[in-house]
């Protein structure tokens, strides 16, 4: 089993690598080789019996995928991307990294006859927009209101078409908001969703910029990684008529998140949250859909977090161990 | 008023040109100039006071749109495309003509600051697919099951994003099946839909390859052209969160089409239809959606055919005059 990962130095890439090496197999076959691509140097962990090759490469450069594809990987995780704010600030950069590089990857697979290679890409809830129904489902239109979501939606269509034509075996998973991300608060509008739990659990102050009634559709990092693994293993024939769908997140309000924090870490933790409304963040996050019937993902056996308390407990265990 | 038309030598391009010249104005302004692009030589009609420039050009060639865009048209109709069967037979050609050329056109508008130029493009019912609901609406997902529909859907997303960013004033109209097309039967799966009316009205034989219960979602050529005109005039602000939607066709069964033929042209006309089932055509056409709530188009005032009999009458008048 040879697995290639683009964006391997990123948050999900790193977690996925560790989980793959710990597991040692994918699709019932021992992992013999990992090829890692990122523009930043990806950390290359050691693992007995696994050849790990890290390539520092800009995926927008001509031929960036040649070495990777010449080695005919069985599974490709395509995770390299510029995030929402960067794609909005620079249309050319977003199109080049998020769309053109994906197309080049597809063309590379086609040119080498990698019809059986499973290509798993991460899309996003940011691809939704417009006059959404109260509960979304697998047939809700993608009408993105940002360039990042537009580029992701275009990739979904192209991967679906290349898969339908038998040129590659593609699958695109739309990820919910990931909570709890480790690390520091960042510029992402959703940063607070991890911050209001992570910082208090670490004994630090956090700012909550939204009303506590606001809801989010979330998935834990562990479950996202489990979904990526499942995405490599799920039967291509079973996927159905379109090769992209939303993963089964859970809907939680900020109030429920804070109540869970109280249960897990007590009232002092909750007192570390300062409420400081920010209409800009409220407007962005408040426009994201939060209720989905994720029938396709469930029928295919994709995992779901069972309850929010487990997410918080798991983070506490991980950060104190 | 300067209007540019790509695909000007095609079926809709030619009809649009004649209607524009007959009308003499668009958005209340006299038409002074028409720039026509097509790879085939477009017929250039004479009209007093209108400068008509025809450019024989392959729109996939570098700089193909330069002369057109340098002249800063007020309205661009982007109708050049390779049709469904050609795009399915040749993925590269479909991507180059249907997608890359559209992107080049958008980039050309952006580079020249043509933010106020209304770009009207034609998309298609072929962009729909997958597990569709019984009645589709403006929020039904595009999950195309063919490369042509994939390329049209990608253009919709890109035009929406360029419009949202204020780089152009775009609008994409998804067209129903056009009935009655003049001319001869062709390789299109929907060819019979025009043929079973047109040939009998012209005293010729026609073949009906589908069961008469089969339904279609149709629009007359006159109404499509009226919709294209309206597409140039509708207020950009009013369009809403997504710059693409389905036009209001009408749902008719083949049995109703034949009954209308009988009303208009009598039983001898109907006897000219030979029923010869073709499972391949049945499978393709039977998968097309036929029932839509086209709320966005209706709210914006797009025209609809009032009844099927009028479509047949109009064709008879046109072809005997
Ligand atoms: N984390 C989330 O909440 C979330 C949600 C939805 C979707 N996604 C998607 O999941 C994927 C991974 O997300 P993440 O959180 O790990 O992101 P991340 O930003 O941590 O990682 C992305 C990686 O891509 C690399 N990259 C960017 N441009 C590159 C280029 N031109 N050449 C080579 N490498 C380049 C970056 O160096 C980075 O290491 C992305 O596709 C992202 O869009 C993430
Ligand atoms: N007629 C329909 O039933 C229907 C339905 C849905 C959508 N559409 C869309 O409406 C538009 C017009 O349709 P039509 O019926 O007039 O099609 P058509 O085939 O009659 O006209 C298309 C024109 O595009 C030109 N063209 C193709 N490739 C070109 C290239 N590389 N460079 C320059 N010109 C090129 C062709 O020469 C042709 O004149 C198309 O975008 C089509 O996809 C049509």
UniProtKB/TrEMBL annotation, chains A, B:
InterPro entries: DenD, Epimerase_deHydtase, NAD(P)-bd_dom_sf. It holds the Pfam family Epimerase. The keyword NADP applies. One of its GO terms (molecular function) is oxidoreductase activity. Residues 3-204 form the NAD-dependent epimerase/dehydratase domain. NCBIfam families: ErythonDh (NF043036). This is Nucleoside-diphosphate-sugar epimerase. Gene3D superfamilies: NAD(P)-binding Rossmann-like Domain, UDP-galactose 4-epimerase, domain 1. Keywords: Carbohydrate metabolism, NADP.
């Amino acid at each position: 089993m040879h697995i290639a990962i683009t964006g391997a130095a990123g948050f999900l890439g790193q977690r996925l690598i560790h989980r793959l090496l710990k597991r040692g197999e994918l699709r019932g076959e021992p992992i013999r080789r990992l090829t890692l691509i990122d523009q930043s140097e990806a950390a290359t962990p050691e693992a007995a019996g696994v050849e790990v090759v890290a390539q520092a490469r800009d995926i927008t450069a001509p031929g960036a995928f040649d070495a990777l594809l010449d080695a005919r990987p069985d599974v490709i995780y395509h995770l390299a991307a510029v995030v929402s704010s960067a794609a909005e600030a620079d249309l050319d950069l977003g199109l080049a990294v998020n769309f053109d590089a994906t197309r080049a990857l597809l063309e590379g697979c086609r040119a080498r006859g990698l019809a059986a290679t499973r290509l798993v890409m991460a899309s996003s809830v940011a691809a939704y927009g417009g006059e959404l129904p109260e509960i979304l489902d697998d047939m809700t239109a993608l009408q993105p209101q940002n360039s990042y979501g537009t580029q992701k939606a275009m990739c979904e269509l192209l991967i679906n078409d290349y898969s339908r034509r038998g040129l590659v075996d593609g699958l695109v998973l739309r990820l919910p908001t990931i909570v709890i991300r480790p690390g520091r608060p960042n510029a992402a509008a959703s940063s607070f969703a991890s911050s209001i739990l992570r910082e208090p659990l670490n004994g630090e102050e956090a700012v909550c910029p939204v009303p506590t009634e606001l809801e989010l559709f979330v998935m834990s990092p562990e479950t996202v990684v489990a979904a990526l693994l499942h995405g490599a293993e799920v039967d291509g024939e079973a996927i159905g008529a379109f090769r992209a769908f939303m993963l089964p997140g859970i809907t939680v309000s900020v109030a429920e998140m804070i109540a869970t924090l109280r249960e897990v870490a007590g009232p002092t933790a909750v007192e570390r949250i300062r409420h400081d409304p920010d209409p800009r963040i409220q407007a962005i996050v408040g426009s994201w859909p939060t209720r989905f019937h994720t029938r396709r993902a469930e029928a295919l056996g994709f995992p779901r977090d069972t309850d929010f308390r487990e997410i918080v407990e798991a983070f506490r265990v991980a950060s104190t161990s």
